[in-house]
Write the structure tokens for this entry.
Amino acid sequence: MLMRYCIINCRNKSIVLIGMMGAGKSSVGRCLQLRTKLALVDIDDIVASHFGTSIPEIFSKYGEQVFREIETQALREMAPAKQTIIATGGGIVVGKENMHLLKQLGIVVWLDCNEETLFERAWRSGNRPLLRAENPREAFARMLQARLPLYAKIAQIRVDTSMLTDEEVAVAIVSKLRKLGRNWRPGSPIPPTR
């Protein structure tokens, strides 16, 4: 089967993945990396590296506000001219400056999902500091309701991950990017959608 090529009309734009915890940003980012051959940058990994410890430890020792400050600093230091896949933390949209920085970095893709599936995925991972509340389900629902309008406001592409595998989500993203006329690796083919 012949590979299709996209018209290059948007150079040096990254693919920025946003969405609630449990949406699959990191795992979908890895699938996109395989499809596009772009580097993958995970903001949570940058923050953890800055502190030399895990995200739950950072929240425990320093609190959410310090975490958010370093998260914003990491965005500021990213080069908008370098094409990458950027997997963000679920709460990155709560910072007003972050909203502006994310749009500067690239095409913002919202990995959306139904609330029940998001909660199950996040809870199953067992390392979500913001779910260490007296009633984790209620805390999650409040967080989600506060963030939904922010995700919707900034996203240029939305993909519902509820019933899709990570690979299927990556294929959907590439397909939507193709429809926008984006080529994430100048001169390289983008795999056709199924």
